Amino acid sequence: MIKGKGNINYILGAAGVLLLLAAALIKAVPEGGLLPGSRKTITVGVFSDSYWEVPNGYAYRILEDAIEIFEEENPGVQVEYVSGIMKDDYSEWLAEQVLSGTVPDVFLLLREDFNGYAEQGVLMDLSELAQQDPEFQEDEFYSSALLAGQYRQRQYALPYECAPRLMFVNKTILDQENLGIPEEDWNWEEFYQICRQVTRDTDGDGVTDQFGVVGYTWEEAFDSNGVTLFDSDGTECFLTGNRVETAIRFIERLREIGGGTVATERDFALGNVVFQPMLFSEFRAYKSYPLSVKKYSGFEWSCIPMPAGPDGGNVSSLDTLLAAVSADTRHRQEAWEFLKVLTCDERIQAELFDYSEGVSVLRRVTESEDNLRQLIEDSESADTLNLRILSDAVENAAVAPRFRGLEEAKGEVNRAVEAIISSDTSISTGQIIWNREINKFLDGERL
């Protein structure tokens, strides 16, 4: 009995010591819920090379600066990321994280992956966080860039960087042909007339060697003529209608100018083509040393908006890299705060002009005189850069739907346009036939 009582007293004494220790620990824990020396960790998913597919030696510079700012402002929280994942492998890597339940708290998101993950519930709905956060100002973003992260009228991602598609112009050929650079509000007919005038055999060997345009496709024509090709969910295609017919006829007219000889991107690089649609990121990359000596170096070139169709405007597409938060994150508020540093902090967004080839998604950053000077210094093109053209191109860009299977659906539209142009039947009849076929394809994609 005495022995048993001793054991009980020992147990009670030990329990008392543990309670005292627990009380001391509870007292030592700060309001944030972390013990001294312990830290929350949020993980970030990124790729190591440039989104814009040009050489870039600053893979993690912007991210690491964002981490430094965030950790200074959020003591007790650290940010970690996995390095070495290439962009070409990133979608597969992210899919593996989804399957294994190890999705990063915050991650970059390619546009072709956005709708699928939003639909599957992988992405946190940011709408309420954005509405309840007084620091988050939606109108600071370019509206078209912000729309790129919306799914069914809800915000599932924020834009990180973007680049509009503009028309790049070989000024040297225009000078030789005594033609000026078109005005910003130029239209299809002006575009056509310039292409017709410059397309010719310059050396008399019987082969056309100077061209009006390369790379102008139905996508540019549809965007600039007010065509809405798919509904937001990718359940229906709208290939019929006058706007589509007008755009296809215009593509057909442009092709007839060359008399069967088709220009290539190499022809533009060699200085033999006047116009080529191109992302602004490529302009930045290849206007800067040392890449400027490798491509497009034998002539003067500039950029202007796309020509407007009769039923549209000087509008083109916008390529946007998104950033999202995992729906399964255990650190909801911290992940949101880091997402804001990446996308809303003007210091970080300004670094895109130093260490990337894209454009900031914030109006005030892209339109700042400091960044214009930076662009001019990088490209040595004070006479070719118009900040308003760039800003307007981003703001007014056509925002295409981003549904699962979009690229495959666009491939079907490309087949349709080529078949309609080469067919002996009328364009309007071809539109009806192919619209039916594409809608069958979309039905099959949903099964």
UniProtKB/TrEMBL annotation:
SUPFAM superfamilies (UniProt xref): Periplasmic binding protein-like II
Pfam families attached to this UniProt entry: SBP_bac_1
Superkingdom to which the source organism belongs: Bacteria
Gene3D superfamilies: Periplasmic binding protein-like II (3.40.190.10)
InterPro entries the record matches: Bact_solute-bd_prot1 (IPR050490), SBP (IPR006059)
Protein name: Extracellular solute-binding protein
Organism field: Candidatus Lachnoclostridium stercoripullorum
Lineage per the UniProt record: Bacteria, Bacillati, Bacillota, Clostridia, Lachnospirales
